[in-house]
Amino acid sequence: MTVLCFFLVFMNVDLFLKTGHCAETRDQILSITPKTQEQVDLLKNVSTQYETSLWQPVSPQYIREEAQVHLFVPANSSETVKDLLQRHAITHEVLLANANELVEMQMRNDSTDPRSSSTFYERYHSLEDIYDWINRTTHDNPNTVKAILVGSSYEKRPLYALKLSLNDRPNKKAMWIDCGIHAREWISPAFCLWFVHYSLSFYKQNADITHILDNMDVYVLPVMNPDGYKYTWTTNRMWRKNRSLSKRSACIGVDLNRNFDANWCTEGASHDPCTEIYCGAFPESEPESQAVADFLRSHKDSVQLYLTIHSYSQMLLFPYSCRLDEAENHSDLLEMTQEAAQQIKRYYRNIYKHGAGAKTIYLAPGGSDDWAYILGIKYAFTFELQDLGRYGFLLPPSRISRACNEALLAVKVIAQRVLEKTQAQTHPPHTD
């Protein structure tokens, strides 16, 4: 047997017990907790020198003693990686023994027409399906939804933001939501579609969303990184960055969430094009980040709330991520995320961490929420959706509904608090 039986930890143990044979090696997700600095160094080496994909943390530089590491290990690297872990007495847990099946499940799609299936929003959709959905949504709601071309990607794919405007009130403020800045985080675009569908379906039915949409227009960019997203459907499910070519390296792609002008490329980002947190050649070097920045610059007087949707780790974050200082309105932002987290726990029994990004996770300069905050949008948030790592970036379609409803609840709570704060500033209490 070429595949040795100590690999059964990666495999289906039941099959081994029944047959005495080892199952075929598959792509797997491992959870590894290094106990010593030597083990930390080995894991850093494994995540960079072998064909693996580091899920958590996002970069080898963040691997620490006693901190959980989530590592995607393709079948062709399993034997080598497993051998290294065993030789250095590094214990691990198999989170997913057969990631291939989950990827196939995510891509399975029986219907692309939302009118023909109530479960359209409980599936993941290809980029082509999402463009088609944008066209249909604007066509079916000509008086309330408009598609705005905010720019195009490196590979010249259009970046469409939907503008939801449910009434004609003058001088209305707005919120912005972008999804899919990181290609492999499929639950993120799924949420943007979910949010639009919910808003159009429950306006005048649900009091919270009606209040929000009566007082705010909403801009929704379903896929900020269309090139990377397309690539995850066709070539590499674990791709994170965009697909731009570098003049000084054969490595492809920039982390768009390190490419904004907020302490750009300081600690927590990298000048190395081969890393997952490559910051690009200069701030807004990428057409995708520049398009979003240009749009927000031209709408900064109306956009009061900025939301960017990511996964995974169940967190509600706010500035700063690019430095350790507290934001000017830190207490307001903390209060809003705290209430949202409490509501999620109350209704869905799920725990979301909340706080300033740098202190809640780690320093991450060049992020879009910090940039929006510095621009003047004083209510800026990053949501990290489900889960905590059991499925990670491969969250099954059966989990979409729950994940989106949790995020929707957080959006409602925060948007209503923003309206209260901004309306109070616009209409101060009358005193004689």
UniProtKB/TrEMBL annotation:
Superkingdom, natural source: Eukaryota
Zinc among keywords: yes
Gene Ontology molecular functions: metallocarboxypeptidase activity; zinc ion binding
Keywords: Carboxypeptidase, Disulfide bond, Hydrolase, Metal-binding, Metalloprotease, Protease, Signal, Zinc
Gene Ontology BP terms: fibrinolysis; proteolysis
Residues forming the catalytic site: 384 (proton donor/acceptor)
Organism the protein comes from: Parambassis ranga
Protein name per Swiss-Prot or TrEMBL: Carboxypeptidase B2
Cofactor field: Zn(2+)
Domain (Peptidase M14) ranges: 123-418
